[in-house]
Amino acid sequence: MKELLRTNDVTVIAFATALLDAEGIDWFTFDDNMSIMEGSIGIMPRRLMVHDRDLFMAEAVMRDGEIDLGRG
């Protein structure tokens, strides 16, 4: 799996996953349960992962949805 997106903003994760679902791209989030460690204050970023083979298409979907991937 490859990291597509890393953010503290749960609304961005929700929007991104909705876009991926609409395109039929499988995804998985890492670090969802870090709120236990951080005390639910939202400082630990969540990572949105996709299969290696889907990364190119997923990046295009994020660009079309105007989601900043934070890469050069």
TrEMBL record:
It holds the Pfam family DUF2007. Residues 1-65 form the DUF2007 domain. InterPro entries: DUF2007 (IPR018551), N-reg_PII-like_a/b (IPR011322). This is DUF2007 domain-containing protein. It comes from Yoonia vestfoldensis SKA53.
